[in-house]
Write a structure and sequence with these properties.
The structure is a single chain. The protein has 448 residues and is mainly α. The protein has a 4-stranded mixed beta sheet with strand order 1-2-4-3, with helices on both faces. β3 and β4 form a beta hairpin. α3 packs antiparallel against α13 and α4 packs antiparallel against α5. The longest helix has 35 residues. The chain starts with a helix and ends in an 8-residue tail after the last helix.
Length: 448
């Protein structure tokens, strides 16, 4: 057996061995117990202050809803969400350290060398490098991943999986990233080699098209890898939702549900895909615990994303971001390689060994721009909130949904805190928006 083949085989064996250790020791750990209780009250009554009256006050109604949340639940969700602020920092620093290790210990150059010894075909070299890079970085970041996505989620009662199924999802995610990431890497490095001066322009275009492709296929081909997606057939839920859709010019024929409870206790819904793959989906946690009014409010919100063309606006926004990122990469890579390229044994921008450097540069700018990205998303979510209120006419259902989402989101942050860290409006602001809407539409509730 050739030396390079033996080395590649050894790498694959290492991956299998590490995975087996994770599964064996993780599954034997004491994680079979049910998750710690974290649920907000399942039945949320409309408080007297939120009942329609001539003296209705939106602020008083908002405070009355918030008062229904037990103090220990508020403290728990606040601790979870505020801990996430630190996780953003630790994730960033940990990823930076991994990138620097790959560069300064020349692991990246060695992986490039192994790929070149296996084959002379450049696209295959790129894919083999990506395979090594993905596996090695996944192993290096695994301690943080298992803490953040498994231990911490169980600690706060948000996870339902034992270690074995959770690890299975991690391996599925690894496989998806291997295929899609490998295709993108081959495409981008091919562009760099053929267009050494204008690669950042063509790379921007290719990345944008790949992003659109990913959004298009995700609901139909990627989501079912992890969860079962099915048409919802309960007429008590489906009929009001489809009626709302028809009334708002949405060509929806079905409502979908996903078995998210196999992984998490989180209640959520989403709009995904676009054109013929667009789907409005609610998870089974929302179906199980949400009132009919709450479900209608949530689905009205999701319809808002569709009617307001948020997916298309996201594509336009991120097309600008991608072009700016590639222009920044063009200058940043050339500057860094002039200073440290020889030390890292990187031959140039077209060398696959440059990938950790590119990731490092993107990590830095993405970390700095976190408030900008959050503000973009939060603004769209607020627009969808207002559309959903006008569509569903369920302000109390909307308030109930905001409280349930408060199981893993801080309800009452400060304004600067919300601007930096929140990609959705805070729970207090969402409830207040619903109660303000109700105050302006009391005539709709006068007869109730």
């Amino acid at each position: 057996m050739p030396l390079q083949t033996r080395r590649l085989t050894a790498l694959c064996c290492l991956v299998v061995f590490c995975t087996a250790l994770y599964v064996i020791f993780g599954a034997s750990a004491a994680f079979a117990q049910p998750p710690a209780e974290n649920e907000m009250p399942s039945v949320i009554q409309v408080p007297p202050e939120a009942q329609p009256s001539a003296h209705f006050d939106a602020v008083a109604a908002t405070n009355a809803y918030l008062a229904q949340i037990p103090a220990d639940k508020t403290a728990r969700s606040d601790a979870y969400f505020e801990g996430g602020y630190w996780m953003i920092l630790w994730d960033f620093l940990y990823a930076v350290i991994v990138c620097l290790l790959l560069l300064n210990l020349r692991w990246s150059a060695r992986m490039r060398g192994l790929a070149e010894r296996v084959t002379r075909f450049k696209p295959v070299q790129t894919f083999l490098y990506w395979l090594q890079y993905l596996v090695l970085t996944s192993i290096l970041v695994f301690p943080l991943t298992v803490y953040e996505d498994y231990f911490r989620e169980h600690k706060y009662g948000l996870a339902t999986q034992t270690f074995g199924p959770w690890m299975g999802d991690q391996l599925k995610n690894l496989a998806v990233n291997l295929v899609l990431g490998g295709l993108l890497a081959m495409m981008l490095f091919g562009i760099v080699r053929r267009r050494p001066r204008s690669w950042w322009i063509w790379g921007s275009v290719a990345t944008l098209l790949f992003m659109i492709f990913g959004v298009l296929i995700a609901p139909v081909y990627i989501v079912p890898i992890f969860n079962k997606v099915a048409r919802l057939d309960d007429p008590k839920i489906v009929d009001p939702v489809l009626s709302m859709a028809r009334a708002n010019g949405i060509p929806a024929k079905d409502v979908y549900t996903i078995d998210a409870s196999k992984q998490s206790t989180r209640m959520s819904a989403n709009v995904s895909g676009f054109a013929n793959t667009m789907r409005i989906t609610l998870n089974d946690n929302l179906l199980r615990r949400g009132s009919p009014e709450e479900i209608e409010a949530v689905m009205g919100h999701e319809m808002g994303h569709y009617v307001l063309h948020h997916i298309y606006k996201d594509i336009l926004f991120f097309s600008i971001v991608i072009v700016l990122f590639f222009a920044y990469l063009y200058g940043g890579l050339n500057w860094a390689l002039q200073r440290w390229g020889e030390k890292w044994q990187i031959r140039g921008v077209g060398d696959t060994a440059v990938l950790p450097l590119a990731v490092l540069l993107l990590l830095i700018v993405a970390f700095v721009l976190t408030p900008i990205f959050n503000t973009w998303t939060r603004t769209q979510e607020y627009e969808a909130d207002m559309y959903g209120l006008n569509t569903s006419r369920q302000p109390d259902g909307f308030a109930q949904a905001a409280i349930h989402l408060g199981e893993y989101r801080k309800m009452n942050p400060g304004p600067v805190e919300e601007w930096i860290f929140f990609d959705h409006p805070s729970g207090r602001n969402r409830i207040y928006a619903a109660m303000r809407w109700k105050a302006e539409n009391l005539k709709l509730f006068a007869a109730q």
